[in-house]
Design goal:
This protein is of the alpha/beta class. It has helices at about 1-35, 40-80, 140-145, 170-175, 190-195, 205-215, 220, 240-255, 270-285, 300-305, 320-325, 330-339, and strands at about 100-110, 115-125, 130-135, 155-160, 165, 180, 260-265, 290-295, 305-310, 315-320. It is elongated, with a radius of gyration of 31 Å.
Length: about 350
């Protein structure tokens, strides 16, 4: 709105200045015509020249508008280019991880010690185990799943993957072993096939992309589209429903086939068919993978091997769904409140 307002102000100001200048020049020209200092032909030529000049000034203002827009875009681009690269001191390359994660006395806070998100957090997650994170503290759950791919670094303590400290593993190697299905789904203005293959472009065959779509139960709606896999999804997937976008994100994870999966469950309002297919796709995706879920669905916590209850900055309860319900503690209250 500031950009539009500034442009309107500049255009209006230039037109007012041109109007005043033309009025003054027209008055002087008429005076000279009356005193025979200027002929009628000279007067008309002068007016036409002034109109051409005013048109040029308007074009100059419009050119400035595009220049300012380009400068703003360039500022944004260079702000990203000038960001410092992530520090990668790791030297170990893991081809395919077994998926065992160990948290040893991990503490994390953002800026100040009083804003502690995790404190003395210790937990061992076995390979192919499904862990559901529940609790009222979203900051703690989000920080925990962001520490695994090293988007954040622990303030204290360490995290091990298959016995290796995460800081000793090369970032590319670490993140190639981790799949992330987030609430925020980013789709590009490209075909469905290209959006599924995002991150694996140039390394995936058409057959592999179709297999990933089938496993994610996305093939059901893709087949109904006139152009199939080549259907353009629009900017941010505007041509698709929320449930269809979710299944494309799940298909990405299938194509990557990581041994470790981080799932931030969304609770969108879906029709019964989309909900059914999305749940089946997630169930397929979690098989034979170490899975850490920020759980919001009842079915998820019931199927998890262990449920971790996080309150404020620490674990308050841990166990299976049935074990925690029988304790009638924090988890039981949360479960009954939400369900």
């Amino acid at each position: 709105m500031k950009h539009v307002s500034a442009n309107i102000f500049k255009i209006s100001l230039v037109q007012i200045v041109i109007g005043i200048a033309l009025s003054a020049i027209l008055y002087l020209a008429i005076q000279q015509t009356f005193t025979d200092e200027m002929t009628i032909g000279g007067f008309v030529s002068f007016i036409v020249s002034m109109l051409i000049l005013s048109l040029s000034l308007k074009q100059l203002v419009n050119a400035n508008k595009f220049l300012q827009r380009s400068l703003t875009a360039a500022k944004n681009i260079f702000s990203i280019i000038d960001l410092e690269a992530e520090m990668d001191i790791g030297t170990i390359v893991i081809d395919r991880a077994q998926g065992e994660l160990q948290f040893e006395q991990v503490a994390f806070y953002y800026d100040f010690k009083e804003n502690t998100v995790l404190k003395d957090f210790s937990l061992t997650i076995k390979p192919r185990e499904i862990i559901a994170l529940v609790g009222s503290s979203d900051d703690t759950k989000n920080a925990l799943v962001n520490l695994i791919p090293r988007f954040f670094q622990p303030t204290h303590g360490k995290i091990l993957l298959d016995g290796h400290d995460l800081t000793t593993i090369k970032l590319d190697s670490l993140r190639s072993n981790i799949g992330l299905v987030s609430q925020e789904i980013t789709l590009f203005n490209d075909s469905i096939a290209a959006n599924i293959a995002y991150g694996e472009m140039g390394r995936s065959t058409e057959g592999e992309i179709i297999a990933a779509a089938r496993a994610a139960h996305a093939i059901e709606f893709i087949r109904e589209m006139p152009q199939g896999m080549q259907t353009q999804v629009g900017t941010h997937g505007v041509k698709l429903s929320r449930g269809q976008c979710q299944r494309i994100a799940i298909a990405r994870a299938f194509l990557k086939n990581p041994p470790i999966l981080i799932l931030d469950e969304a609770v969108p309002i879906l029709d019964s068919e989309s909900e059914h297919y999305t749940q089946k796709a997630l169930d397929n995706l979690m098989q034979n993978r170490t899975t850490i879920i920020i759980a919001r669905r009842r079915t998820t916590v019931e199927k998890a091997d262990r449920v971790i209850v996080l309150e404020q900055d620490h674990i308050t309860e841990i166990g299976s769904h049935q074990e925690l319900l029988s304790k009638k503690g924090v988890y039981s209250e949360l479960y009954l409140f939400h369900h």
